[in-house]
Design goal:
The chain has 27 helices and 29 strands. With about 1150 residues, the protein is α/β, with parallel strands linked by helices. The protein has an eight-stranded mixed beta sheet with strand order 1-2-4-3-5-6-7-8, sandwiched between helices. The chain has a seven-stranded mixed beta sheet with strand order 10-12-19-14-16-9-15, with no helix packed on it. Strands 11-20-13-18-17 form a five-stranded antiparallel beta sheet. Strand 5, helix 8 and strand 6 form a beta-alpha-beta unit. The protein starts with 14 loop residues before the first helix and ends with a helix.
Length: about 1150
């Protein structure tokens, strides 16, 4: 390796000054004077041998150049620079310097505060974009908050006997049983076990809202119900684990520890029901063999990870319900182990469900439901809660809280555990699936999925199973000739229920011969449709004519309803109630502002909606509407048979046209009551839209205001808008970094918009849909927050690359802002442009044809689940602009961080000069004014023996006690101190060497700061474990090689040693390392951010290798560690004047 030290002759920024000094030096040799004595190359006899030996040990690279400057930084005119020719001076034998080197000498360093106009404009644009993104995320396209507060009376039973005999984590984690005061008494178990697993930094007490509702619902509703008891419904015993609020999302080993503990806790919970002293369970019932798991956030991931642990007990878990759990991918990728856990876990689940036979599928009995909070969840992107790439529809699904009937609101990350209307639904769903008569304590898998869908889905989904196919008839209806028979070719509208003040029936004939197969029946009412009974006020029945020839004369009926009155003739109808098929819709009137109601607001009952395809009514001849209200009310009913072609529309429009012109269409006055519009091109979650619904004025009193439902087929996301006139539409469809679904058959259906409008108005409805560009910026916040751990390292890597290229060529290490300005002229735009073309090429190629860049592709199926791991996480060519946009934002952020660090360091350096370094400053100025034949370190430093001892102790601690991430934080703090000292010295004596060193340590500090977020979470986990007296070390975080280069580099910089320029071909290796790191940060930085630490570690190792070329690593160099202190003592003695 050829090297040129930072103080070599080529590093001079002013060539003419150097030449004049050379001529002056020649004259001094010919005519020595008192001011310029002759230079004697031989050592003085008065110099001790140790000093002479120490000087001889000085690197050749430090003997080439010494620039003399006064206090003001200008070159001394009367001083003489002594240039000694040594074997290390690459220009020692050159008498003539090429012209291109003369040009490079004119490169002068600028102030670190200086900034070019191009950098300034780019930074302003980047910060403006960032502010717009944050403002949009916080204020635009935001879902309304509709959760009502819940109340409970909690108490917890601690299982102290679940100790180290059962688990090795007994001193760290704990197990509790929830008991509602006044309802549940005693620590004994008596029902069906349910285990709650908290999430990242979550508390075991978060179970109290749902567990309290469970106890009250069973005590007040189910316990007195004999039918429920006969069906195997028992109370739920809610267990909860205390993880001491561990940070599971940041640390893979913590997740494995929790999964291991969960399996041991489940084994212990099941053993409680076998012990008569701890159980009050009915001995006639089978002992439980499985536990229902309820997981919040990362707790849901821990529940799934338990299946791949060695201590997992088969069939111990068959039902998992998760809330705001990131199933699709880890929320952050700073830890390599957590990325591997996700890959192994998801591959295990996919492979199990891809098995053709149930015997080969170890998860055939498991149902998994993922409930996402929606747009209000700003902790975990709700896109990550998707199960479409992991679990088939037969075993699980993803649903949003805004979809769930009677909930109809988004929730933040914590509210999903206590929201009152949501906890009521989830408790009812859990009681629907339990069956204490089976050892699994639950119903069959198919029944569980069916019950979950009935509770969590709207009932309007295409995959929703309509129970109306059942022919269980419950009512015998007798009607007379006075009953109203409605012409099905016209719309049936009934205003004012109870007008006649006596029961009345309306019959709508179902004439299959006259109705085409593509027609459907719809009914909407602002009153609840009652089940058959004495207190029913409004019923809708599906009826067929009763014939005595059927042989069912003596068949028992739940209700025998005779409404024939005084009619001479009557007809008996066998009917089935349609109440179980009712879809609840939020009421849309002038009095409603949101689909939900808050505390203190008047509760308006939801609308009742029925929808049947004609083929589902083939077993019936009439739809009977029975009004049994005994007083006139404001209730109304609208029913009709409509053509499917008129009620289902599809709008084919591209996103580009949607952005430029928008989508406009009208619904005619004779439209059906409900119209379903599909827009296949709207799939991405990165775009937000604005929709306007305008209705022509009509003097007739309307029944209800327009109601809009926005929905996706997969995942199940629906949002309702009452009184819809102007509404903001955002969705969680195709999202960045989320793997593609297992079944792509429904992935192209796009956004659905369902509109309920009052058909009695006979007015035209105008609809306009446009893209909201400012509102769309806010959607980038949740999807691309983690880019700030990767893309800034792209910028800093290119800046360092440019700095070293100029330094190796000219000997001047330019400032960060000056280098960034140079990068913005060529290298950075070219790299972003290349990444953009790469993204376009990936998006235009098919998943089966494209070559996988990642070396470990998934082999489970033909679907490439890693296809969205690259770049910005999307293969849609439309979003080509995301890479330049993120690049500009990160440039602005890097510039702001640079100036924040520069301001902080400047202030601290002033404080350092006032308090800590008044004497050191005088010595450094004194040394500067004295001509020395060497260019030593920039400032004084501790002895090599002390530095060696400190480094050895730190390495020992990393290998035994502390994780290397903690040592990295220490290295950053030490580098900050070095940066402060370098700024202090450069401000007091702005020589070229000092300026070079200041710029060098400052940029290295910025690189380490941007790499800090990758290491900091592990430090937080480690400190948290120390706080709870858990001293078990992390076996995966004691790799000394992962931190040793950083330690050595920081140690070299602490000694004030400037890195020498590299003039050989090896300088290209420096260029390649920085460029490769920048490319990786752009391509895989978000999906595999932890690799960036290793890449920067390699860069640090290479810089240490360059530093090592300055000093001798031979035995003589090691010997100097023990004699340098003596040499320094002799030097100080000789410098003293009598």
């Amino acid at each position: 390796m050829q090297r040129r030290p930072s103080g070599s002759s080529e590093d001079s920024a002013d060539a003419p000054v150097k030449a004049s000094r050379t001529r002056e030096h020649s004259k001094s040799k010919k005519a020595p004077t008192a001011n310029h004595p002759c230079h004697d190359p031989s050592p003085s006899p008065s110099v001790s041998p140790s000093v002479s030996a120490a000087r001889n040990r000085i690197s050749n690279g430090q003997l080439n150049w010494q620039q003399i400057q006064g206090r003001d930084g200008a070159s001394g005119k009367d001083s003489v620079t002594v240039v000694g020719k040594t074997s290390g001076d690459i220009n020692a034998d050159n008498e003539r310097t090429p012209a291109w080197k003369l040009r490079t000498r004119q490169f002068k360093p600028k102030s670190p505060w200086a900034i070019s106009l191009w950098t300034l404009f780019t930074s302003i644009a980047g910060i403006a974009l960032l502010i717009s993104i944050v403002y949009s995320a916080a204020n635009l396209q935001c879902d309304p908050k509709g959760c009502r507060m819940s109340w409970m009376s909690p108490s917890f039973v601690h299982f102290s006997d679940f100790d180290t005999e059962h688990t090795r984590f007994a001193s760290k984690y704990s197990l509790y049983l929830y008991r509602e005061q006044g309802i549940d008494n005693g620590p004994k178990v008596r029902g069906i076990p349910v285990l709650f697993i908290p999430g990242n930094a979550g508390s075991y007490k978060q179970v109290r809202s749902i567990a309290s509702e469970s106890a009250r619902h069973f005590h007040e509703t189910l316990h007195p119900n004999v039918a429920a008891a006969n069906s195997g419904v028992k109370n739920l015993d809610f267990f909860t684990v205390d993880f001491n609020e561990d940070f599971t999302a940041f640390h893979g080993q913590t997740m494995l520890d929790q999964a291991e503990y969960v399996n041991e806790a489940i084994r212990y919970i099941l053993s409680l029901y076998l012990d008569p002293q701890k159980s009050e369970r009915d001995p006639d019932l089978p002992d439980p063999s499985s536990v229902i798991v309820l997981g919040h956030s990362m707790g849901g991931i821990v529940a799934r990870a338990a299946f791949v642990m060695p201590n997992f007990q088969p069939h111990s878990i068959n039902t998992i319900v998760t809330m705001s759990a990131p199933h699709a991918r880890p929320p952050v990728t700073f830890d390599p182990l957590i990325v591997k856990i996700y890959q192994d876990m998801n591959d295990h689940w996919r492979q199990a469900y891809s098995s053709k036979s149930a015997t080969e599928n170890s998860l055939s009995h498991v149902t998994l439901v993922s409930i996402a909070g929606g747009g209000l969840d700003t902790v975990v992107p709700s896109d990550y809660a998707s199960l479409e790439s992991i679990v088939p529809e037969t075993h699980g699904f993803t649903v949003f809280t805004s979809t769930i009937p009677t909930v109809w609101t988004s929730m933040d990350h914590q509210a999903i555990t206590w929201c009152d209307q949501f906890r009521k639904v989830i408790v009812k769903a859990l009681y629907d699936i339990v069956d204490s008569r089976d050892k699994s304590q639950t119903k069959t898998r198919a029944e569980r999925i069916s019950h979950f869908k009935r509770r969590f889905l709207t009932g309007l989904e295409a995959s929703f199973e309509m129970p109306s196919a059942e022919t269980h008839l419950t009512t015998l209806l007798t009607v007379g000739d006075s009953s109203d028979t409605v012409d099905t070719r016209q719309r049936f509208v009934l205003r004012g229920l109870g007008t006649t003040r006596e029961p009345k029936v309306y019959l709508l004939p179902v004439q299959l011969s006259e109705l085409p197969s593509n027609r459907r029946f719809t009914l909407l009412s602002n009153r609840e449709l009652d089940h058959p009974g004495e207190n029913a006020k409004l019923e809708v029945l599906l009826c067929s004519v009763y014939s005595s020839q059927t042989g069912q004369v003596s068949a028992p009926f739940l209700v025998d309803l005779d409404l024939s009155g005084k009619s001479t003739t009557s007809t008996r109808l066998l009917c089935k109630s349609a109440a179980q098929d009712v879809v609840a819709l939020p009421a849309s009137t002038h009095a409603t502002n949101a689909p939900f109601f808050l505390e203190g607001e008047q509760q308006i009952p939801p609308f009742s909606f029925l929808q049947y395809d004609v083929r589902n009514l083939r077993d019936y001849q009439f739809v009977a509407i029975v009004d049994k209200s005994d007083a006139q009310t404001t209730g109304w009913i609208v029913a009709e048979f409509s053509n499917t072609a008129d009620s289902s529309l599809s709008k084919s429009i591209s996103i580009r046209r949607l952005i430029t012109t928008g989508l406009r269409f009208e619904l005619p006055p004779d439209r059906p009551m409900v119209v379903d519009v599909r827009i296949p091109s709207i799939q991405s979650s990165l775009l937000a839209y604005h929709m306007e619904v305008k209705e022509a004025n009509n003097e007739q009193k309307e029944l209800f205001r327009p109601l809009v439902r926005q929905y996706l087929s997969r995942p199940y996301e629906s949002k309702y808008f009452v009184g819809a006139t102007e509404l903001d539409i955002s969705l969680h469809g195709v999202s960045p970094f989320v793997p593609p679904p297992l079944d792509t058959s429904e992935s192209d259906e796009g956004l659905g918009i369902q509109l309920w409008t009052d058909p009695t108005q006979k007015s035209t409805i105008s609809i306009k849909l446009t893209v909201d560009p400012v509102g769309s910026l806010g959607k980038l916040y949740m999807r691309y927050r983690t880019v700030f751990a990767s893309f800034p390292q792209l910028v800093v890597g290119l800046v360092l690359r440019k700095q070293f290229r100029i330094y190796d060529r000219t000997g001047t290490f330019i400032s960060f802002s000056e280098s960034l300005g140079n990068c913005l002229r060529r290298s950075l735009p070219m790299l972003l442009l290349s990444m953009t073309f790469l993204s376009l090429s990936i998006g235009q190629s098919s998943p089966t044809d494209q070559v996988a860049i990642w070396p470990w592709p998934s082999s489970i199926s033909t679907v490439d689940f890693a296809q969205n791991d690259l770049l910005v996480g999307t293969t849609d060519p439309f979003f080509w602009f995301l890479i330049p946009l993120i690049g500009i934002v990160c440039v602005g952020v890097c510039v702001v961080m640079h100036y924040i660090a520069l301001t902080l360091i400047s202030l601290l350096s002033i404080f350092y000069g006032w308090v800590f370094a008044p004497n050191i400053q005088g010595e450094e100025k004194k040394d500067t004014l004295v001509s020395k034949p060497t260019q030593g370190p920039v400032f004084t430093h501790p002895s090599p023996r002390r530095r060696l001892l400190t480094t050895s102790i730190l390495i020992f601690l990393v290998s035994t006690v502390i994780p290397y991430q903690s040592a990295y934080v220490v290295a950053c703090v030490v580098q900050l101190g070095t940066n402060i000292r370098a700024h202090h010295v450069a401000r007091g004596n702005p020589s070229l060497a000092h300026i070079n060193f200041r710029n060098y340590v400052h940029t290295i500090f910025l690189l380490m700061v941007w790499n800090l977020p990758i290491n900091l979470p592990t430090v937080v986990v480690w400190v948290r474990n120390l706080a709870i007296n858990w001293f078990t070390p992390f076996s995966s975080h004691h790799n000394v090689l992962s931190i040793l280069p950083f330690i050595l580099l920081v140690e070299n910089l602490t000694a004030g040693r400037m890195i020498p320029p590299v003039t050989s071909q090896l300088r290209h290796l420096t260029n390649i390392l920085f460029f490769a790191t920048a490319v990786y940060a752009a391509v895989y930085g978000v999906s595999y951010a932890y690799v960036l630490h290793y890449l920067v570690n390699v860069i640090a190792a290479w810089l240490v290798a360059i530093h090592s070329t300055v000093d001798s690593w031979a035995i003589a160099g090691i010997k100097s560690l023990f004699v340098e202190e003596i040499s320094n003592t002799n030097d100080r003695k000789q410098n003293k004047k009598p």
